[in-house]
Design goal:
alpha/beta, TIM Barrel, 8-stranded parallel β-sheet, 9 helices, 8 strands, globular
Length: 256
């Protein structure tokens, strides 16, 4: 079994053939998929999508791009209510994005810390997005010792891994690790301890090599996993077992 620990299956790109997408995923061994919310509307959509579909697990949070929307009436309360539900397996997607900076940095940092605090309070893992914001992300994470979670779509190299591993976080790799110019990211995928390693698609974005320029989908988690297995000199079947065990443990999937 392979677990896609980060998908956005509620996305409009899947409206025409979502059933076929799920069939292809399962045919490629991807039997479980986290459906990750990025604002109030998509967190609600993620919850609804997962209710009638086995193997799908919802999360709820506000993406840093949308951090400014946290000031909208009821936004904090609605995300917290969703996160408190037994079936919601993680808080987020949250984090910091200083590359595109669609929301002001102050709003991003405030929203990120709110999510970190909620995740620690609920003892649920937090899903962290970090782009061009390494130092600020590490500073915030260190303010919440004991918080569990994952650095999703890790794009940095091995040099930046230390603070995240020291904080007890898992590290998840996406299709970016398969790109020819991603040598540093592959080096990081080799260095992460096996017990902290996860795989994902971030679909419909970031299709792996061989599918670039096309819509990404959960079936391609297998491409990411096989690429990392080759880089690490491991059998894909064994790496699938380990990363799935890691995902089940972090997100408590066996209990849902």
């Amino acid at each position: 079994m392979i677990i896609d620990t980060h998908s956005h299956l509620f996305w409009k790109d899947f409206d025409e053939d979502r059933a076929e997408v799920l069939t292809r995923a399962r045919a490629n061994g991807v039997e479980r998929m986290l459906v990750v919310g990025t604002d109030v509307a998509t967190s609600e959509a993620a919850w609804d999508l997962c209710q009638d579909e086995p193997g799908l697990y919802p999360t709820a949070g506000i993406h840093p791009h949308d951090a400014a929307t946290m000031d909208e009436p009821g936004a904090f309360d609605r995300i917290e209510e969703l996160c408190r539900r037994d079936g919601c397996v993680a808080v987020g997607e949250t984090g910091l994005d200083f590359f595109k900076e669609y929301s002001p940095r102050e709003a991003q940092e405030r929203a990120f810390r709110w999510h970190l605090n909620l995740a620690r309070e609920l003892d649920k893992p937090v899903i962290i997005h970090c782009r061009e914001a390494h130092e600020a992300a590490v500073t915030a994470i260190r303010e919440y010792p004991g918080v569990r979670g994952v650095m999703h779509c890790y794009t940095m190299g091995p040099e930046e891994l230390g603070p995240y591993l020291d904080a007890g976080l898992y590290i998840s790799f996406s299709g970016i690790v398969t790109f020819p110019k991603s040598e540093a990211n592959r080096a990081a995928a080799i260095e992460v301890p096996l017990e902290r390693l996860l795989v994902e698609t971030d679909c419909p974005f970031l299709a792996p090599q061989g599918h670039r320029g096309k819509r990404n989908e959960p079936a391609h988690t297998r491409v990411v996993l096989e690429h990392i297995a080759e880089a690490r000199g491991q059998e894909p079947v064994e790496l699938a077992r380990i990363t799935s065990s890691n995902a089940n443990e972090l997100f408590g999937l066996e209990g849902h």
